[in-house]
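Title: Prediction job returns without error message
Component: structure pipeline
Severity: low
Priority: P3
Assignee: unassigned

Description:
Job completed but the reporter wants confirmation the result is attached to the right record. Sequence as submitted:
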Amino acid sequence: QVQLVESGGGLVQPGGSLRLSCYASGRVFTMNSLAWYRQAPGNERELVGRLPRSGDPYYADFVEGRFTISRDTTETTTTLYLQMANLKPEDTAIYYCNAQALGTYYWGHGTQVTVSS
């Protein structure tokens, strides 16, 4: 199994920046991809971006070059990052980390991002 714990959310003004972290532990060597999703109140959960084991990251259209996904990997852990810049009020949501491993999807509990003046 894989365990995911997000952190780094908070309140930020429009135009500001924030970096989210997702600490992955457990059978991280089985992970095929890592991703960030988000869910705003009343909306369905949507993909923000995905980072495959190898290859370039994929971003949703609404990212528009404002977000960057990266990761740091050790033998037993992986930390996934989401660097967000030029944040907009419509980016307000709970952000979730997702891992796909051996056909199973794992989720963290999420971290709240609120963009407001």
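Comment from assignee: result matches the submitted record. The chain has a mean pLDDT of 94.
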